[in-house]
Structure formats: structure tokens, C-alpha cells
Design a protein that fits this description.
α3 crosses α4 and α3 packs parallel to α5. This protein has 248 residues and is an alpha/beta fold. Helix content is 38%, strand content 25%. The strands form two sheets. The protein has a six-stranded mixed sheet with strand order 6-7-8-3-9-10, sandwiched between helices. A four-stranded antiparallel sheet has the order 2-1-4-5, covered by helices on one side.
């Protein structure tokens, strides 16, 4: 597999606080990589740097072989680098189908307008396809505000998938979900793995070790280990810094 994302020597400070220090990491085409670590380890800061919401103080971000440090978040999305956030980013007054169709129209360059005719029919049809794959077709006409939290998280994922990501970064997508809801959400992501590369941040170790091809561990802003789930789980330094505290 070729490298789709390459981070080299990433550093970021907020005043006297060193959030990230000399972080290097690569993500291969078609894999799912889990990013774990204690609260404050720098996971969300790293996500924000990859997606252009923050500029690194040092180091470089390369995507699909080219440096993207000067690209805005929107320009990165246009190249297929898409992320979710820790809270669902939805329009609560619109239906589930309308939210997905809105994301589709935005991806097609139609902004957040509500066009009629062929453009609306095409977006609605593709939204129905995504709903069918997620098992939420029967909820398509429900207002987002009336859906359960788990359904809203699934809707947020569907809106991200509507942007046709080549690289999808998921920030705590299973937080607040039941085990069954979490497995259902990650199952949908796995369906798309052949054409979508995924980086997943989650505190649920069973989810990360059960679904990811490799696991990267951040601790105090530094990369401790990036390897297979089995190798990371057996690493004494990782156990001391993070996994041991979870088992305690």
C-alpha cells in the first residue's frame, strides 16, 4: 500500500504548553488507523493540523505526495480529506435526508442553496442510497432534532461520506453510543474501506483494537508507538503510559 498521509516532525505549542513535539506518522492507502492516548495527549490538536484548522509550528503535512500546509480546510476537503467532530454537526430543523442531501449539494459546488429540478432529485436519490446502506431509510423524513443521539452520530458520518472522502478522520465517533450502535457505525465505515482511508480517534480500546489495522499511541504530545494492535497492546511503555491505567 502507498502512503496517503505523511506527517514529519510536527510540533505545536500554545504559549508555554507543548501540545505536540516532533510527531511523525504515515497512513497507508486503504487502511484504518486508530489514534489513542490519554486526555491532553494531543490527538485533537493533531487532527486540527491535518485538516487545516491549526498551523503547525514545525514539521510538514503531506497528502497524496504533496505538501498541503498552506491549504485551507475547505481546499483540503475538496481534495478528499474530510473529518468529523466530537459533536454531530447537523441542521436540527431539517430531516435526516435533507441534511445528507445538503452535504451532497455542497460537495457538488451548489453551496447550501436549495435548488429544485434535476439537481435536487439527484441529491435526494444519492441521499436515499446512503440511508439504505446505513439502515436508516425509515428515519429519513424525521427531523434531526427528533432522532436519538446514536442516529445523529450516524447521520454525521453519512454527511461526511457524502463528501466522497479519500481520507476520513473520525474524532470520537462512538462517544456516547451503546456497544451495538458503535459496532454498527464502524461496520458502515468498514464497508467503504476499499476506497476510503480512515484515521479514528476513540477512547474505547475494544473498538480501536477490534477494528483498526494499526494503532498509534500519543502521550504528552509525543508518539510512543505505531504498530499492529497486538504489538501495541504488548508494548511495556504503552501499558505504563495508557493501557495499564484503563485496566486498573
Amino acid at each position: 500500500m502507498s502512503e496517503l498521509l505523511e506527517l514529519t516532525g510536527i510540533g505545536k505549542s500554545f504559549g508555554a504548553f507543548q501540545a505536540l513535539s516532533d510527531v511523525s506518522l504515515s497512513l497507508r492507502e486503504g487502511e484504518m488507523l486508530g489514534l489513542i492516548g490519554p486526555n491532553g495527549a494531543g490527538k485533537t490538536t493533531l487532527f486540527n493540523i491535518i485538516t487545516g484548522f491549526l498551523k503547525p509550528d514545525s514539521g510538514q503535512v503531506r497528502y497524496d505526495g504533496a505538501a498541503i500546509d498552506r491549504l485551507s480546510p475547505g481546499q483540503r476537503v475538496a481534495r478528499g480529506l474530510v473529518r468529523s467532530f466530537q459533536k454531530p454537526m447537523v441542521f436540527p430543523a431539517l430531516s435526516l435526508r435533507e441534511n445528507i442531501a445538503m452535504a451532497l449539494r455542497q460537495h457538488a459546488g451548489q453551496g447550501l442553496r436549495w435548488p429544485g429540478g434535476a439537481a435536487k432529485r439527484a441529491a435526494d436519490a444519492k441521499a436515499e442510497q446512503l440511508l439504505a446502506r446505513s439502515g436508516l431509510t425509515r428515519r429519513g423524513e424525521e427531523r434531526m432534532a427528533d432522532l436519538s443521539y446514536g442516529e445523529q452520530r450516524m447521520a454525521d458520518l453519512l454527511m461526511a461520506l457524502a463528501l466522497e472522502p479519500r481520507l476520513l478522520l473520525l474524532d470520537e465517533p462512538t462517544a456516547g453510543l451503546s456497544q451495538q450502535e458503535a459496532e454498527r457505525l464502524l461496520g458502515l465505515v468498514r464497508q467503504l474501506e476499499a476506497r476510503t482511508t480512515v484515521m479514528l480517534v476513540a477512547h474505547d480500546i475494544d473498538i480501536v483494537f477490534g477494528h483498526c489495522d494499526r494503532v498509534a499511541v500519543l502521550h504528552l504530545g509525543r508518539m510512543l508507538r505505531c504498530d499492529t494492535p497486538a504489538a501495541v497492546r504488548a508494548d511495556a511503555e504503552v501499558q505504563a503510559a495508557y493501557l495499564g491505567s484503563l485496566a486498573a
